[in-house]
Amino acid sequence: MPISEKRLIGNFIRCYIGYSTDKYVRWISSSGGAVTSLLTFMMEEGLIDGALVVKMEGLKPKQFIARRPKDLILAAGSKYLPIQSSIKLKELMDSKGKYAIVGLPCYIRAIRNLMARSEKLRKHVTMLLGLFCCRSISPTGFKVLLHKLCVSEEEIEEFRFRGHGWPGRLHISLKNGRKISLPYFDYWRPLYSPYFFTPKACMFCSDMTNEKADISFGDAWLPKIIRKDVLGSSMIISRSEEADKILQEAQRKGFLKLASISEKEVIKAQWRSLFFKKTTLPARLLLAKRRNYASAPGGFFKVACALIQLMNIRISESHLGTHIIERLPFAFLQFYAVLHAMIEYFSWRYITR
Ligand SMILES: Cc1cc2nc3c(=O)[nH]c(=O)nc-3n(C[C@H](O)[C@H](O)[C@H](O)COP(=O)(O)OP(=O)(O)OC[C@H]3O[C@@H](n4cnc5c(N)ncnc54)[C@H](O)[C@@H]3O)c2cc1C
Ligand code: SF4
After folding, report:
1. Which of 79, 84, 102, 106 to mutate to test the pocket of ligand 2 (most atoms within 8 A of CB)?
2. Is 108 a pocket residue for ligand 2 (Cβ < 6 Å)?
3. Is 60 exceeded by the pLDDT of residue 3?
4. Do 258 and 307 fall into the same domain?
5. 250, 270, 290 — which closes off a domain?
6. Same domain for 344 and 203?
7. Ligand nearest, relative to CA of residue 40
8. Same domain? 123 vs 203
């Protein structure tokens, strides 16, 4: 049975591939710098007085209210660690003016629910910008990464998961002046793409493309972009006419470059995360709760993939599993990750044929 496209990426007005026209922003951001440049446009046009965003402080991601475009530059780039996020929302509600909020699907959903109940929040928040999210990484998973890179937390001055082109590089500046830099795929794929170190909440979360946001942003993982784009492009989904107009206006004023794409292309680019969040979730949920393999829904491929996902998550969070992954060479984990991705790819193709 074909899988409904609307069910996979939520309701939307239009889908785009786009990027910031500011090459520096595009270079330092995660994908195309579209979030940073759209917020800059909104600030410069007086549509917002600030934006609730996240920057790294050492090894900790911290939410803050950016009030100037140069604060947005500090916040560019994805932070894949869990974030403590209630304090700044209170500060935003107590401030004067209008704000945009950037967040992961779980956060944007919570804000949307709060907005339904709070007139004060509705008055203050004019735009919810949502990032796509397959999962964040657990603190254990982060420690394993540092262990594999042979650095201790105390030695680190500055840490960035991405930036420096696309798909970007991990960057660590040590207090002794030494720098470590690693291509995104060289650490993300072997350590995290087989779902190792996925936090519990992410195991059972079904929103991949930030369906409750006004505009959603993700990586443009399309073969034609991967082949030739080294600066980066974002996948952008507008979910209301008003939000779509703001995007168009940002393009007209020269902040963003946008090209329309079909929802099929969004799904093609994001098949792996959608497979995890939508296709195998029901089976994973049942397997995790009831441990009853026979009653898991969805046929052999869904159940088999859900089982492997659960197994990888559980093993990586056990003491022994963490210990083993810490010691396995990146090359071996890379091989396993590619094999796992192939199994999921053929299952996805079979299920959606
Ligand atoms: C945990 C996580 C998982 C993701 N998973 C996927 C995925 O599976 N597939 C995919 O295509 N894309 C995923 N993304 C989104 C992707 O990494 C980029 O954030 C997105 O493409 C936007 O890039 P950009 O260059 O337009 O944004 P930028 O211009 O780099 O701006 C990013 C903005 O997001 C804010 N931000 C960064 N991290 C967080 C955070 N954790 N919580 C709240 N705000 C934050 C920054 O402060 C900044 O304002 C994920 C992002 C995160 C943080
Ligand atoms: S996978 Fe879901 S619960 Fe986990 S960080 Fe992303 S949106 Fe939040």
Report:
1. 106
2. no
3. no
4. no
5. 270
6. no
7. 1
8. yes
Q: Report if residue 174 sits inside a domain.
A: no
The predicted-structure confidence for 284-319, as pLDDT tens digits, reads as follows 988 887 655 555 566 889 999 999 999 999 999 999
Which ligand minimizes its atom distance to the CA of 81?
Answer: 1
CA of 132 from ligand 1 middle (Å) equals 7
**CA of 1 relative to ligand 1 center, distance in Å:** 32
Q: What is the pLDDT of residue 2?
A: 46
Give the residue, out of 83, 131, 226, 271, with the most ligand 1 atoms within 8 A of its beta carbon, to mutate for a pocket test.
131
Tell whether ligand 2 has an atom less than 6 A from the beta carbon of residue 131.
no
Instruction: Say if 120 falls within a structural domain.
Output: yes
Inter-CA distances, 106 with 131, 178, 202, Å: 10, 36, 9
Residue pair 277/285 in contact by the 8 Å Cβ criterion: no
Does 1 have pLDDT greater than 70?
A: no
Output the CA 153–ligand 2 centroid distance in Å: 25
Q: Domain holding 252: CATH number? A: 3.40.640
Parallel/antiparallel/unpaired status of strands 50-57 and 156-160: unpaired
pTM exceeds 0.85? yes
Residue type, 230: V
Instruction: Find the 133 Cα to ligand 1 centroid distance in Å.
Output: 8
Q: Which residues span the domain enclosing 10?
A: 6-136+199-270
Cα 214 from chain centroid (whole Å): 16
80 and 213 share one domain: yes
Which ligand approaches the C-alpha of residue 233 most closely? 1
Domain-embedded: residue 188: no
Q: What is the model's pLDDT at position 292? A: 58
Helix axes 330-352, 184-192, angle to 10 degrees: 70
- The pLDDT, as a whole number, for residue 5 is 57
Structural domain count, the chain: 2
* Residue 58 sits in the same domain as residue 95: yes
Q: Which atom of ligand 2 is found nearest the CA of 104?
A: 7
List, for residues 48-106, the tens digit of each pLDDT value. 999 999 999 999 999 999 999 999 999 999 999 999 877 788 888 888 999 999 999 99
Collect all residues with Cβ–Cβ distance below 8 Å to 272 and sequence separation of at least 6.
Answer: 134, 193, 341, 344, 345, 348
Give domain status of residue 178, yes or no: no
| Block residue for tokens 């034609």 | 224
